[in-house]
Every structure is written in C-alpha cells, then in structure tokens.
Amino acid sequence: MIEIHEVSRTFAAPGGGEVKALDGVSLRIGQGELVAIVGASGSGKSTLLFTMGGLSAPTGGRVVLDGQAVYDLDQGGRAALRRDAIGFVFQTFNLVPYLTTLENVMLPAILAKRGRREAEAGAMRLLERLGLGDRRHHRPAQLSVGERQRAGIARSLVNDPGVILADEPTGNLDPESAGHVVALLRQLNEEGQTIVLVTHDADLAEQASRVVRLRAGRIIEDRPSMRKLAS
Amino acid sequence: MRTGTWLAFRELRARGGRALLAAALVAAAAALGCGLELVALGREEAANARIDGVGPALRVIPTGVSGTGLARLDLGPELLPAEAVGQVEAILGADLRELRARLVLQRVVSGRTVPVIGAPGVPPGVALLGAALAEALGHPRRVDLGGRAWPVQSVQEATGTAEDGAVVVALAEAQALVGRGGVNEVQVFLRAGAPPRAAVSRLQAATLQARVVPGARGAPADEEVQGALSKGRYLAQGVLAVLIALGLSVMAHLDAAERRAEVATLRAIGAGADTVWWTMVARSLAVGLAGGTAGAVSGLALSALMDQGSAPVSAATWTTMLLVAAGCALLGALAAGPVALAMARRDSVPWLQEG
Ligand SMILES: Nc1ncnc2c1ncn2[C@@H]1O[C@H](COP(=O)(O)OP(=O)(O)OP(=O)(O)O)[C@@H](O)[C@H]1O
Ligand SMILES: [Mg+2]
User: Fold this and answer.
1) What ipTM does the predicted assembly reach?
2) Taking the domains of chain A in order of start, what are their residue ranges?
3) Which atom of ligand 1 is nearest the CA belonging to A14?
4) Which residue of A215, B42, B97, B258 has the smallest Cβ count within 10 Å?
C-alpha cells in the first residue's frame, strides 16, 4: 500500500553545506501492518514519515500510495490525499486550540465537505469509542495530555484513512497515558488499520509487527518485532 | 471558503482580545475620517444648495459667445438654433427641474446702456428692474425703452450678479424689440441631487449647435476655502487609511507568527492552501469591517459634534458611511493577504513540532 523507492531528502544547512536527512531509502509497507520506525535523534525518522505522508517532497526517489505517485500530484491534489487517505498523529497533539474536542475531530470531515451532521455523527462515534464522549465540548487546554492524544487519534480516524502516520505519539505522555495510546493503536491495527509510527521507545517498538531502524538517513535494520516472532 | 470562514469566526469568538483591540483602533481612525468627510460633505451640499438658489446650474448659449460676455449679459445678436431647447430637455430628462429660455440684449434704458432680458413668466407691458439699476435710476415709476414708457412692476432682489443691473421684460416683448423670434440663452435648473458636472458633460457630449457653460459656483473666496478644505481633507483621509492599514497588518503579522503550528496542522490534515489563506484573510476582513462599521456610526455622531451647522443626513451621508465600512474591510483583507499567502505556501512541516 505504501511503496518508497530510493527516497532521499537533503536540507540546506543553515551555516552552508547540506544535511542528508534521507539517503536512498526504499521501503514497502503492506495493508494491515503496524510498522515502528526507530533510530537515534536526527536519523531522519520524522522526515521519512512526512515524506510518506505527502507533506514534504523528497529531493530524489518516488513515493507511491495505493498506486498513486504522491509527488506527481500538485499541491491541491496532495492536500486532498492527506485529507482523505492519511491520518496524522503528532507528538505535540496539534489540536486547534480554539475549537472544541468535537470540532477538532470533525475538522478533517468538514474539510472533506462531508456535511456537518454526518461529520458530527462520525466524530461523536469516535469520541465515544475512545472514551471522550463527555469531553466533547472541552477545549484542548481543558483536556489532560492523554485525552489530547486520544482526541488527536480520533481526528486521524474520522475520514477512515488507509494509513495512520504517527510521529512519536507517546513522546509527551506519562507512562499510563502512553500505555492507553499504545493499546488503542494496537487494537486499531488488529481491526485491520495500517499504522506507521515513529518512536524512541524500544518497548513500544516491539509492540508493532515490524521494526525499521534508521541511522543517518539510511535503513540499517528491517525485521519483525519480538511480539510478532513470539506469536 | 466556508470552512475557512467558520474557522476564522470560531477563532474570533474564542480569543478575540487582540482582534477587538485592532477593531477599536480601526474604529477610532475610521470615526475621525468619516466624521471629517461628513462635515466636508455637509458643507459642500449646503454651498451647492445656496448656489442653486441664486442661479442656474448651467447655461446653454450660442457658440460664438464668450464666457465673460455671458457674465456681463451682453450676448449680442446671435441666437440659439430653434431645436436647442428640445434637445436639452431630451438629454437631461428626469434630471431637469426647470428650463428657462431667455433672450438677452443690450439696450438703452432711461439713458443708460444696460442688459435687457426677455424672460418667460413676466406679464406683458411691464418692466422688472434689477436692484442695482433701480438704485442708480433713483427708483423710478417707469423706464424708457425702445421709445416707450414701461411701468416698473417691481424691483428684483439683489443677487450679487450682473442681473442686478438689468431690466427684465416678457420674452415676446424682447423678441419684438429685435424684430425676430428665438432665444440666446437657456438656463438649466437641475433637480436636487442631480450632479451639475455630469449634466454639463452629457450636454457637451451631445454635439449641440451651442455652448454649454457651467453655472458660477460661488464667489472666488468660497471656492478657495473649499479647495483648501478638500486638499487637507484628502491628506487627512490618506493618513488615516495608512494608519488603519498599518494597525491591521501589525495584527496580521502577529497572528501569522502565533499561528504557525496551527497553519502547519491544518495543512497536514488536508486543508487546501486556499482554505488556510482565507481563514487568515477572513479574520482580518471581519476585524476591518467591524471596526469600519463602528467607526462610520461614531463618525456620524462625531460630525454632528464637530459641525452643528452642516446639512442634514442625506443619501450621500449613507453612501459615505457605507464606503468607510467597506474601505476598512478591504484594508483588512489587503493587510492580511500577503502574509496569509506566504503562510499558506511556505513549507510548514518545521512548524508542526511547535504545536
Ligand atoms: N527544515 C530543516 N532544515 C534543515 N535541516 C533539517 C530540517 N528538518 C530536518 N533537518 C535535519 O534533518 C535531519 C533529520 O531530521 P528528522 O527530524 O527527520 O530527525 P528525527 O529522526 O525525527 O529526530 P528526532 O528523533 O529528534 O525527532 C536532522 O539532522 C535535522 O537537523
Ligand atoms: Mg522527529
């Protein structure tokens, strides 16, 4: 479902010269996988995730999502692709601060012009499921961090995307909230949701089905997780 | 666009503090500008009304006659083509309030060469004297003109124009004095509110076999004052508009800096660049419109305080207020437009981590 061919990405370094954030990365991710991308800070994990998600054009190589070459699309086409086919989850939650929890979760559906009533119904279903039904009128600042991330995950799901791309979804959470989020992601994956997540957390990574390790913009390891091997 | 508008208004409702401050600034500047404009407008209207009461908005005269000749009322022997009156009526249509066709001559009256005006509506056989001429002749009971004695029916009120030195008789009698029909001046009085300048250009464009001369618009001193007022007024207006634009663009820049993470998020979850752009522009436009509207209303109140003697509220007042409000909204959009465009286009991925 996601194919990455020889993708590289260089940034102009502020002091002159350039940084190779990705250096010839190739990766195939199939339907229903839960892939953990790990690696040291600065190894290119976020860059890879955002490149996969149509947010950041590579300087070389191709990204294909469900048969569509992502960067052959123009800006508007890629925005529509992100809206309809991809769900992003961020370390910093990235909820819109002046919208309520319900409105935040509805937002991608509203952007997809799905009609307010339908958007609201879909968002409510997700909030109930994630245990946030009674928090629907809260602003993000009035939620605990764990609740914020659950709202972020609800938002990523509202348009029923083919893949969830999560950049360190537990990075700002206390262990208990992190545990909830991990359990939730696993449950979604067991229901067939494809998920790619970036993490520093070795334990979390082993909860995935597959672990991909980056170093200096290259894949140095790509293996099934311990959990996968155990089962 | 609808989603953008929705987002803009949700934000204004949730954290409108700075927007309110910006709107208040816009309102204060707009009130000053609008008030000034309304005072100037009122003065202008009052002046126009006064001028219109004294004389016609414009005159149609034979092609060979000079402007100064007209002022002195010695129009000479040339006459207007017979169809001129009908043409003027047809061209001006509903803008016409009254049309006076006159014949203006130079004749010796009681030993003095003065203008003799044949005008419609004057009873036959009598003369009406201009105030200055009556004074000069020692308020006579009758005057001699064309070998006949004419009873003086009344003395005209002084107008401060050359007509004060003239004799007015019935049009047919003036025509009998020269032995031919026709007229050599058509005075045009316009309906209240009809712009004289537009009427002049419409007549001039119509290639009449005649000259169209705008009516005198007040004494030179009045014009000088009005000119100075309008120059100062446009300068003040410009300074205030710049002030409003600056205030709104400071707000737009602060907003943009503060909303980087939000913009990055919106784009990541699939908002198009147009939606992101419009979210920011709509907010600034709304602030401009709210401030401009408040300013226009306060401006009306302010103009009444600044100038008690100005003309009453008219259609032009409402137009001015509408323009002030719309102008502020436009300034809002213009102030935010470029920043919003940069925000909607720039690579926003680095801002995602600021969320
Ligand atoms: N916008 C940018 N401009 C310049 N260099 C950048 C930019 N974004 C990333 N980089 C560089 O690219 C490299 C990879 O960055 P990336 O954010 O992908 O790392 P990461 O693996 O996600 O790290 P972390 O675990 O700390 O989030 C880093 O060396 C970083 O400094
Ligand atoms: Mg990262």
Assistant:
1) 0.94
2) 2-230
3) 4
4) B258
